[in-house]
Amino acid sequence: MLTLEEIGARIQSARVTRGLNQVQLSDKLKEQGLHISRETISKIESGDRPLSAMELPVFATVLSVPVTELLKEETAEDLVTLFRRKAGVNIVSEEIAEIQDMMKALIRQKQLHEGKLIVRKREPIWRV
Prior knowledge:
Blueprint lengths: L3 H14 L4 H10 L6 H9 L8 H9 L3 H5 L7 H7 L7 H21 L15
């Protein structure tokens, strides 16, 4: 399931790819008739504020990305579903889920190494 944090990270990634800071993005959105402050953009990118159905296409236009790119699910099917379709597979679904989690972690590490993943630093839960 797609989360607000994932959508925000995609918006942030598209903004950074186009060489825009949050103030510049705010200005470009205002040119399109959408008045959103830099602070609100920060909240959207961190997943603290959702985008409305009216705002999303404007963001996509300004960032030159299709709306579907901002909203697409990372994987159409997970490994558990694929293995369940096969008859006679003797692997426990928990093991498959663990393998899937490991693969996702490896993919994220690769994206991080290639600079395609932007990591947001957060305060640890135990300090709050």
